[in-house]
Amino acid sequence: MNGIIKKLLPADILLVSEKGLKHSINRMLGRSKWHHIMLYIGKGKVVEVTPRKGCHISKLDLTRDCYIEYRALRHKKISGTEKKRIVATAVKLFLGQKFSWRQLTKVFFRRLVELKGNRSNSSKPDYRKKANCLICSNLAAMTYRAAGRSISERWAHDYVMPRDYDKLEENGNFCVVLEGKPK
After folding, report:
1. Rounded to 10 degrees, what is the CA torsion of 48, 51, 53, 55?
2. CB burial class (10 A; 0-12, 13-18, 19+) of residue 96?
3. Cα torsion 124, 165, 109, 21: sign
4. What pLDDT, in 10s, does the model give residues 137-167?
5. What is the residue-averaged pLDDT of the chain?
6. CB–CB of 150/142 below 8 Å?
7. Cα angle value 20/67/27 (rounded, 5°)
8. Cα distance between residue 46 and residue 130, in whole Å
9. What is d(CA 135, CA 48) in angstroms, rounded to the nearest whole number?
10. Where are the domains of the chain?
11. Which single residue of 13, 20, 68, 164 could bond 73 by disulfide (Cβ 3.0 to 4.6 Å)?
């Protein structure tokens, strides 16, 4: 596990696919091989959003039996200072926020019917005070947006889904730094 952690840097985005029926349904509905997104913050820890714990910091363990596959993405064009700011932004803005089933439903519906446009709750001036519509794929996208970077050119950051991370390296800004299956 230490070998994996040594390859990661703060602000790397981790994509995982887990075993289980509910995760399979999530991947099928989201049309992606990934269903969970985490943001690496350093020292073997990630910020993630889950239905049970909301936005919290947890120890990274990609060797768990529940994982099928994982991938780590790194933005190639940001400095170490920007990476630290991204991590600080995620912790400051979102830590302790609850997982939003309403937001998950909104994202699935909007993407299912291909509603276009970038009208976004987090584009409003006071969104930082009301950052209560959070799901895992939004955490990384909203954090990167607050740092002036974008995950998706087509979708607003609070409507980003795991499938938007599938081929993120193709836009030239991100590269895959790690991928594999638990041993």
Report:
1. 40
2. exposed
3. negative
4. 888 988 988 888 888 877 777 778 887 888 7
5. 80
6. no
7. 50
8. 22
9. 9
10. 2-180
11. 13
Query: Helix (H, G, I), strand (E, B), or coil: what is residue 87?
Result: helix
pLDDT digits (tens, 9 = 90+) for 87-133: 999 999 899 999 888 888 888 777 777 655 545 444 444 444 445 57
As a CATH number, domain 2-180 is 3.90.1720.10
Handedness of CA 58, 102, 108, 19 (dihedral sign): positive
Q: Which of 119, 171, 120 is nearest to 149 (CA)?
A: 171
Strand positions, DSSP E, the chain: 13-18, 36-42, 45-50, 54-59, 67-75, 174-180
d(CA 8, CA 15): 13
Q: Would you state the structure tokens that stand for residue 21, as one six-digit string?
A: 């029926």
Structure tokens, 70: 């994982």
Could you give phi then psi for residue 121, rounded to 5 degrees? Answer: -60, -35
